[in-house]
Design a protein that fits this description.
2 copies of one chain form a homodimer. The first copy, chain A, folds into 3 domains: 6-174, Molybdenum Cofactor Biosythetic Enzyme, Chain A (3-Layer(aba) Sandwich); 181-257, 2-Layer Sandwich (Alpha-Beta Plaits); 262-416, Alpha-Beta Complex (Maf protein), CATH 3.90.950.20. In chain A, α3 (49-62) crosses α4 (80-87) and α10 (262-273) runs parallel beside α15 (396-416). The radius of gyration of chain A is 26 Å and the shape is globular. Helices cover 40% and strands 25% of the residues of chain A. The relative contact order of chain A is 0.08. By secondary structure, chain A is an alpha/beta fold. Chains A and B meet through α1, α2, β2, α3 and α11 of A and α2, β2, α3, β9 and α7 of B.
Chain lengths: 419, 419
Amino acid sequence: MSDHSAEIISVGTELLLGEILNTNAQFLAQELARLGIAHYYQTVVGDNILRLQKAVAIGCERSRLLIFTGGLGPTPDDLTTEALADFFQVPLIERAEVLAEISEKFARRGRQMSPSNRKQALFPVGAEVLPNPTGSAPGMIWQPRPGLILMTFPGVPSEMKVMWQQTAVPYLRSQGWGAAIIYSRTLRFWGIAESTLAEKVADQLALQNPTVAPYAGKGEVRLRISAKAPTEAEALQIIAPVEQQIQAIAGLDYYGSDDDSLASVVGCLLKQAGQTVAVAESCTGGGLGQFLTSIAGSSAYFRGGIISYDNQIKIDLLGVSPDILLQHGAVSEPVAQQMAVGAREQLNATWGLSITGVAGPDGGTETKPVGLVYVGIAGPNGVESHRHQFGESRGRDSIRWLSLCAVLDTLRRKLLQPS
Amino acid sequence: MSDHSAEIISVGTELLLGEILNTNAQFLAQELARLGIAHYYQTVVGDNILRLQKAVAIGCERSRLLIFTGGLGPTPDDLTTEALADFFQVPLIERAEVLAEISEKFARRGRQMSPSNRKQALFPVGAEVLPNPTGSAPGMIWQPRPGLILMTFPGVPSEMKVMWQQTAVPYLRSQGWGAAIIYSRTLRFWGIAESTLAEKVADQLALQNPTVAPYAGKGEVRLRISAKAPTEAEALQIIAPVEQQIQAIAGLDYYGSDDDSLASVVGCLLKQAGQTVAVAESCTGGGLGQFLTSIAGSSAYFRGGIISYDNQIKIDLLGVSPDILLQHGAVSEPVAQQMAVGAREQLNATWGLSITGVAGPDGGTETKPVGLVYVGIAGPNGVESHRHQFGESRGRDSIRWLSLCAVLDTLRRKLLQPS
């Protein structure tokens, strides 16, 4: 007997070789949890028609909704659609409207559609096309027999996510899946350790509905508050008072929720205040500017920046004093301050932010080890700088990320509590 | 009939809820590939004894080595050992030496062992203990019947990895597993569609040893060449001629192998030529600088840059003409060219690279839609620019990424084929 549950089947030899992480399975698992759809198994199988069909045979014995990712591309080893049609003994037909759409997408990018892309227009008779607005390979929604739904998605995560949200979720709801829902809110914190926060909110961590669970990673701590209820509105009502308690306990260490980032939160605060920001970056090489401009509409408050990787650029474009550079070195309090002031003045912004540090793996010394970073912040009331020691063992990427978050967090606190 | 292959069974409800990424499966998959152990399936199942046993039943039908991660902790929902013993109808016994070791580990950390930890000393009769030098939960190696090996590991990645390397790998080698190895090289391509490349290298895609498989994502195409041989050196000998053929066929569209990126490849070429680069970024907001400086040692060739997000910055710091801006708009050929020249001159570099475009989601017009990007490149022989239309549907992040890769690829081709 089949459970009324979903199963994720990830197709791709690259997964079996460990070349990529199965982030698609995580995304879909989160989505199924959010929709309150039971989900007991995940399977990974390679680009092999027989083994894929064996996985299908097992999956449709124990689950009623099989969600496939991968194997929809134009090459000979992309064989998910073919394998499914053959397994359920249903012929493939070429869908003219899909073929037209694929060839049009190629044309729009000024490229010729190759003959192998034709294959992506083949679907089993009776399947619905699941449109792929951002890529070339559409998926399908297919009920090959009563009580069994198959959904196929390409392996490219960004394409799969759009297709899931735009088409698959509304379809599932229309079929009565996801009646009770689990709804979650994630609260985000910066500048506090996971264990410290967990002790402060021990009462909330003990709750049953909503549940509160701590996570940590990439320098931030998160608390996920999850409620089970018949509707999203009711779940939110269960979550709201707990969320308020936690925010009150955490104070300024709480910075945002769900999809908020330090860049989006700082952007909102700047917009509200009618203020602007400019950056001067050394070891982050442009990462702070990139993070700030990852937010659509950031041109309202982001002026621009100077990437002063070379010391001469610090002197020429930011007005850092050659004597100070010589005396204190590029990674120092006074240079961070002069960089921040230079960014503010040269780019005519309310705030100037600067970062100078040793990101490693080389370049560390006894007094200035890898992981030592100074951030500067210049504003209407003057300039200040802060020293951070992120530790030698973290690695270049992580040191750079923590550096740019540190200076954004400093600006965030200043904007929330003007001195 | 069982294949002589391995299967990874990841146990944990947190995986089914999407709370964590299954990095353990990726690590083990890479290890199995490295050892040349065939591996056709991965399964994820929750902390539920019946469903776990169903997964075991399926696994031992189709594989001869089942590798479990997770479910070895002290709490009631950790039940991997119990489920396996019950499935194979073998009683559990408490292993005094394991109990002593666990309690000693607690004592060393100044803690009292809790009664629930006692459970971690229970093993099926006949199983070998797989020591866990860095954590409290040991695993096991067990042959419950001839020709079937089970291995259990805790879910904590760092503990699992040490146990795998110190005990599991030597054991497998002693049992004749992993005699041959599979070694892979990944070739990377930019500026060619997956389908076009696949058609050009159709002969290579049909090979058996090595195999050649295409992948695509984030704007690039990759070909993975995998060879099976007794040693890494022999595998490389099998790969080398095919790699050379493919490189010859692809010409300049091939840009690097394995861990190479456009930033690392361009960096190498600049270093060899004793040249430097500076950037002027608008819609990428610093992303090009960040990408170039993600490479350790990039200070040898990266001078810095100007993030000219606001038009006034383009005028003030890059010397873009206000008339040209008014006449053509910021997203235009002449502005891209003036930005590139400005970066080159202001930062005193051999090459100036520029990017100006509409990253979206807003800001597109009839004549300048979202996805339209101009990149500029100024060098010793003058300046040029290129128009790219990445399509409105791709999304902001992707348009920004493709833009910075496009300009790096242009510089790469110039460095390889000086005019």
